[in-house]
Design a protein that fits this description.
Blueprint: E1 17-25, E2 31-38, E3 40-46, H1 48-51, H2 60-65, E4 69-76, E5 94-97, H3 99-102, H4 107-120, E6 124-130, H5 142-145, H6 152-160, H7 165-189, H8 191-194, E7 208-212, E8 226-236, E9 245-253, E10 255-260, E11 263-268, E12 274-279, E13 287-297, E14 303-304, E15 313-316, E16 325-327, E17 330-339, H9 358-364, E18 374-378, H10 387-405, E19 411-414, H11 430-440, E20 447-450, H12 466-480, E21 492-499, E22 502-508, E23 514-516, E24 524-527, E25 534-535, E26 537-541, E27 544-548, E28 557-560, E29 574-576, E30 585-586
Parallel strand pairs: 3-6, 3-18, 4-6, 18-19, 19-20
Antiparallel strand pairs: 1-2, 4-5, 7-17, 8-13, 8-17, 9-12, 9-14, 9-15, 10-11, 10-13, 15-16, 21-22, 22-27, 23-29, 24-25, 24-28, 26-27, 28-30
């Protein structure tokens, strides 16, 4: 026991067991913890791609129908920030992986645990501590981030208020109150709120109409930036009643609040995010149901950014086989409410989730007395503009966590998936440099990287095939944390050799050979000393790749998949015989485009 009344109990290491134990504490008040398993605990952290839940993944209805694995447990850390390290969370509980609970578990973490459990037969505990849109420096302790030269001034400002944490808390409360007041002002002048356009009883007469997916600029509302309300009636058959449904509208431009039969079911305040909302069973009626979306567009075209009709639907949230699916494409009504120039002035956010150490303090520090097996990490999108800086920030976070936990545990991470527009010619790209910074972090002992370049979506920062991401992370865990070095995962570039007008590339993870998936090998670019890259021919020879372009007689460097998304045609399609994609790479060390971005 400590002077402040806190106490700890340490147990010797025990073998993993699925037998449920009870722990009883005897004192003035007796109490017990039940259904305790002995297994491995993993910290699962990062930003929105780690946060992305099982209910939003590809084929989620099928996955949830099978989501009854009592040996998998999860604890989700609440989203809070703090200027000083905390010792506990304001809320949270451990949940067993049932259908109801698994729906909202991190999909990457869940499929990671599922694969590990199937292989190791060890109960897996997942501590899910993530926050969308966050930067790596916010997840690093102030003690460590202060040692980074780029953070001397920001940390100095923070240290000035370190002994007065109430000041930081008061700023956060002030910002929250100001934002709520701003929202109320908007509602007071938005006719959609005043006239209850979200109500199914509202008569939407004399509204515009369009066939979605589409933009309203192409349907009679030209050059309109601001708030537009959209409505659609959908007819639900009796066999879909009595259970929650999933509403999927893909990407709307830019920010939305969505109602179903007059009840708000979700909102998204980031224009790159998919709109996938759960409709509670109690809201669903047989026959006509009304969907209403209040959509705010800041600039450019507003409306549905989806490319295909099939991306708009409402479906069963859980199904053993094929889930029932009702299309939401087709006729939607819409009406403008207010232009951006009519908004009241938006208040400044006086605190930020990007503040150095603020997420570490609130979401990681309370865990540091636990014994953990390791950590999995999916983050980097927010730091892509500062990719060169990430070369030092990311290893700093890993060493910091190991120091704070007093454990040299394995740290496994996901290399960013393909995203951003496909380019016709080789280009410089911040996301490519971020992936390179991630690959360089493999020099840190006991780290592993799941390559995901082939799992991305050029138009969506949130690719939905998280099953494979979790599987690849689990294999990295098998190799590193469970001591199975014979496991082969993605090929990694090792060295090059110039042979006349060609360059030969050598890889790790290629002992059993390399393959070109789905046709001719592609995704390679080559340059001479001019540093001007052009697309290249490439052929596999054994466990090497030979690259050339007949117009480049004195080649100096090769790049592969060095872009936001894989290139046109078959894309970046180099794999090993084990069917793992090669990591994007470059052979040159020419200046980073993000070198001076801080």
């Amino acid at each position: 026991p400590q002077k402040d009344g806190r106490w700890t109990v340490e147990f010797p290491a025990m073998p993993a067991s699925e037998t449920a134990y009870q722990m009883t504490f005897a004192g003035d008040d007796n109490f017990s913890f039940n259904n305790i398993l002995i297994g491995d605990v993993w910290i699962c952290s990062g930003q929105s791609n780690m946060e992305w839940p099982v209910r939003k993944v590809f084929n989620s209805a099928y996955e949830l129908a099978k989501a009854d694995i009592p040996a998998i447990r999860s604890f989700t850390v609440p989203n809070e920030i703090s200027l000083t390290p905390q010792s506990d969370f304001s809320s949270g509980r451990w949940n067993v992986a049932t259908y109801e609970n698994a729906a909202n578990i991190s999909a990457v973490a869940y499929f990671f645990a599922k694969n590990l459990y199937q292989t190791e037969k060890i109960p897996i505990g997942l501590i899910c501590s993530y926050w969308g849109g966050t930067a790596v420096e916010a997840w690093t302790s102030l003690e460590s981030i202060s040692s980074h030269p780029d953070y001397a001034q920001p940390v100095e400002k923070l240290l000035a208020t370190k002994n007065t944490p109430d000041f930081f808390d008061s700023l956060r409360i002030k910002s929250k109150d100001a934002y709520q007041q701003w929202q109320e002002k908007i509602k007071s002048i938005d006719p959609g709120y005043k006239e209850k356009w979200y109500s199914p009883e509202y008569q939407a007469n004399e509204w515009f109409s369009m066939l979605a997916p589409a933009y309203w600029e192409d349907n009679g509302l030209a050059d309109f930036d601001g708030v537009v309300w959209l409505r659609k009636d959908v007819y639900i058959p009796s066999q879909m009643l009595g259970k929650p449904l999933q509403l999927d509208m893909e990407i709307l431009k830019d920010y939305d609040t969505t109602w179903f039969n007059g009840e708000e079911i979700g909102f998204t305040s980031w224009n790159a995010g998919r709109r996938i909302y759960t409709v509670p069973a109690g809201l669903i009626r047989e026959g006509k149901n009304t969907i209403v979306v209040r959509l705010e567009n800041i600039k450019g075209s507003g409306g549905f950014s989806s490319k295909h009709d099939s991306e708009l639907y409402i479906k069963e949230l859980m199904a053993d086989k094929q889930a029932l699916n009702i299309p939401l494409s087709g006729l939607w009504q819409f009406k403008p409410a207010m232009r951006t120039g009519d908004y009241p002035a938006k208040p400044q956010d006086l605190t930020s989730i990007h503040t150095p150490s603020c997420l570490y303090n609130a979401k990681i520090a309370p865990l540091t007395n636990l014994s953990v097996k390791g950590a999995i990490w999916y983050q980097g999108e927010t730091n892509a503009f500062r990719a060169c800086q990430y070369r030092s920030l990311f290893p700093l976070l890993i060493s910091d966590w190991r120091k704070q936990f007093r454990q040299d545990f394995p740290f496994l991470f996901v290399q960013l998936a393909g995203h951003k527009a496909i380019t016709k010619e080789p280009v410089e790209e911040t996301w490519a440099e971020l992936r390179e910074a991630q690959t360089m972090t493999l020099s840190v002992p006991q780290t592993g990287m799941a390559v995901a370049i082939d799992l991305g979506d050029p138009s969506d920062v949130h690719p939905t095939h998280k099953q494979e991401v979790g599987r690849r992370l689990a294999l990295e865990a098998e190799k590193i944390a469970y001591h199975k070095p014979e496991i082969i995962t993605s090929p990694l570039y090792q060295k090059m050799q110039i042979e006349g007008n060609k360059i030969r590339l050598y890889f790790s993870g290629s002992d059993n050979g390399l393959i070109a998936k789905n046709g001719k090998l592609s995704g390679f670019a080559i340059a001479d000393d001019s540093k001007k890259f052009v697309w290249a021919n490439a052929e596999i020879e054994g466990n090497t790749v030979v690259v050339w372009n007949d117009n480049i007689q004195n080649p100096a460097a090769v790049r592969y998949a060095y872009a936001g998304s894989p290139v046109e045609g078959n894309g970046a399609n180099l794999y090993n015989k084990e069917r793992f994609p090669a990591s994007p790479f470059r052979t040159d060390d020419w200046e980073w485009i993000t070198l001076n971005n801080k």
